[in-house]
Write a structure and sequence with these properties.
Its main location: endoplasmic reticulum. It is found in: Endoplasmic reticulum membrane. This is Protein PBN1. The chain contains six helices and 24 strands. It is α+β, with helices and mostly antiparallel strands. It has three domains: 248 residues, no CATH class; 194 residues, Sandwich (Immunoglobulin-like), CATH 2.60.40; 36 residues. A hairpin with a 3-residue loop joins strand 2 and strand 3.
Amino acid sequence: MRERITYFSPQDADMDPNQLEINDVKVQGPAVEAVREHKITLTLPELPSEIAGLLRDLDQLQLRWATPASYNTLEPFSSRISPGLHVSYTPIKEDHDPEKLCTALQAFGRLDCSSPDVFINLSNERQAGSPALFFYNELEKLDGFAKRLGPVVCSGPTAAECRKQLQELKDAVSLDMSYDSTSESVKIQALWPLQKREISVPASPKGRTEVGILRIGDAPGMEAHEVGVSGVLAVIGETKTPSPTMFAFAARHRAAPGTFTSKFQQPTGLHPTLQLSLKTTAPPLDDGAECAPYAYFTFPKVIFADRYQLADELFLASKNLAAAKYVSEPVDLEAPAYTTKEWGSNVLLELAPPKDKAAAKNWTVEVPLHLRYLKPSPTGKEEAGIPYPAVFWACNGEQDVGYAINPFDRINLGYDGLFNPGTTFWHVSPKPEADGRLINNISVPVVTEGASQWVGVGTAVAVGLGFVWVLMKLMGGYAKSGHGTIKAAEDKDKKEK
């Protein structure tokens, strides 16, 4: 097992390396404003046999979770996904049964994922090597995951310290778990937000623990597409004094200036409009790269976008939209939520900022959506939460700029597979409208439970009345067509005879 804990501070942060205490069991230091990343790399033999057996049936697996709470971060941790749990994977066999994976995912909570129809097939429009199947589920916190995972991975004399570290996940803002069959290794990365925090890292009892205390800054020979850092490194049990370091690396994900908010226009009805308000300009690139703004949405099954409506160029232009670049399939435009098998849908929209530079500093985008019918409720209303999208500028670059050597790189986020490998993503920070949450709540009108009983009766009555009306019309038409006159003439002839 390899373990890496990194503290990243802003460029103006002041931390004296001489204040660090380094010994065979820990690294301790003063409080500093920083983002904290904890990364663990494990091989299959180091995992519990049940988990290792599950992974051997897969070519690759990615689990991505993001908090619904607003938070601040720094480069190189600028990448964003919609709040919730995102699961993508590629099975080795085509007839793979997802039930075993779904059972393992219950560690996060009660997830409805046992049926193969719940997962959506990712299209061939994505980069080669991207996962084949995808599933999403709302997930507020990781508290339950940490509690359920403790008995599985924590044992022996270090169990108490292991459980303590797991409990720290309740304050994390993102969690990534990745596996690929080529390396047969599992990588787990957790991130904590930018805030004042004490430097405290215990040694791992089962492997190597590397600690980095870094800050953003320029490095010698750094190029425009790179991020520079400087600071100190230490390996617990191997070094007694921190080693200075300074390096630069190409970053796939960068921080763009500005912010955006998301809200539903009122009143919503069954055809709500989601409005994105942006305070942003193009990222500061002067190397001739082509850049365009995008929004990548993750819609639960209760709501969807109509791909045919989004194909109308004039309609899109009126909403400050340029094009619908991707809509996952299938999306049934008529089915109610309670008969829809898929978890929901993903949509990638290219945005169209105003051409006037002054107007482009504050502009809005309107996304037309449609609510599905839900089951009746006692109140006639149901609440649904729609996660914020990921909003970014995508800038085309060279096919190979060395992203793979970035020690903090992040891939397979859903939208990155829809662009060429050399794309740089400049992320616009989300700003919540209220209560500090990156979730848009919407009240969905539904039939009340009492009224639903009368709906069936009313339908039957309406059908019956309609049948009687049609029958009367047919009889009236029969009489007017002359059949009645002919019958009367026949009766008259019989009497005369």
